[in-house]
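Lab notebook, page 48
Experiment: co-folding of the full assembly
Goal: obtain a model of how the components sit together before planning crosslinking
Operator: M.T.
Materials (sequences as entered):
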Amino acid sequence: MVRKPTSRETARKPNMREAILAAAEELFATNGFNAVSVRDIAHAAGANPGSVTYHFKTKDGLLLEIYRRHCGPMNLRRSELLAAARHVRDLQDRLEAIVRAYVVPAFTSGSDLAGGGARFTRLRAVMSAEGNEVARKIIAQTFDDTSHAFIDAIHESLPHIPRTDIVWRSHFLLGALYYSLVTPDRVSRLSRGETDGSDAAAAIEQLVQATAAAFQAPALDQAAPARRRTPASSKT
Amino acid sequence: MVRKPTSRETARKPNMREAILAAAEELFATNGFNAVSVRDIAHAAGANPGSVTYHFKTKDGLLLEIYRRHCGPMNLRRSELLAAARHVRDLQDRLEAIVRAYVVPAFTSGSDLAGGGARFTRLRAVMSAEGNEVARKIIAQTFDDTSHAFIDAIHESLPHIPRTDIVWRSHFLLGALYYSLVTPDRVSRLSRGETDGSDAAAAIEQLVQATAAAFQAPALDQAAPARRRTPASSKT
DNA sequence: ATGTGATTTGTACTATCGTACAAAAGATCA
DNA sequence: TGATCTTTTGTACGATAGTACAAATCACAT
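Observation: model returned without errors.
Model output:
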């Protein structure tokens, strides 16, 4: 159990800043932003409340730093995987690879923290639900590029599906992804113990399989809800 | 001057209790539970803070009453629609009808309040994300029956798909449904204005179409992960 | 009109919030 | 070593939180 730490890990333990970030990330992700006090975070990190102010100035600043810490690596990993997925020959395999490129980093990537990816994604889900302003700004300017690239890749693979439909379906994917991380216990409960909802590998495979099928569903013309299904495809 | 309208059932003046409930519902659904103060609610309802205490005793009691108000009608409507959907002949149509039975009441049903269904469902999404204890208890004991009935209906229509997969996919459906109500603006933004994310009818149709396809995706054998269509990625 | 019970108001109490700031403690290097 | 900079601690302040409660007000049967 006792292991000689490498040079990179050595600086971690006494680093109070990192401990605060990790504690805040965990608490925000599970309880929301407003339910967690700066004192809660400091206590969980074994730090003094004043120390949080010193390192991050404000509570918003702390949240901002959490995003800054994760957004870069995660989107980098996504674009790498997406670039590779674009070259897959078989359509079905390519769709799955594209979805995987979007989903996998959300579960595993992030900073070098263990399980940081899933924790950060859950945090994003919660901030989104709470309508957090700090998060909203960062999300729009950081993730929209990635989302568009992902949508474009899907659209290229499924040119007969209107872009609007693909936007909706990718939106559903993100919602499903978020919800899987927010309440994994619900899956365990409803499956009567046959599955562990917090099993990341299982969640990823289920999500990829289901979403790849959803993207391939017949197109929907939404111009007029009362109108029946027609193969009209109008590009504006 | 003011005519007295006979019996006690008449809504003489806007019932303050209802106004408080509506205001709380709206504020909780958009900002979360902890971010909204009792004073905020009272002010939005044009009431006095003390009046909230009088009618609902505590802030938790207020949330509890919101749930009590909506859960019954919504689940009743769901079971009605589900019962009808089970009898649809064509498999594809039946799947869509079942999904619709789950989705439509979440958008439209609820109490007699205008647009109350979507608002309450959004509130549930936010409470779920925040890990609200009051909501968690009610959800588990009120919605699990409905969820099981829904899963059973899908499973009967798709007997070759393992129940576990259906649980996952219905979980994704709920996540997608929640997310559509939480951040409809994201759909508008990503579609570059081609679609209005807050258009309930469009959201429902997109959700039904995508989810019906997802349920029909090939089964996933996770008990014995020997066979895989795509090469397994050994890297995390 | 008057009494009565149901509501609404105004206010106050205590706890906790985010944040500020000075002093103490470490760390670094001449 | 002492000087200087960084980090941590302890404490305090004003704002606001949830809730309690007495007084004021209202609806309405008598």
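Interpretation: Residues 147 and 170 of chain B are 8 Å apart (CA to CA).
Next step: discuss with group before ordering constructs.
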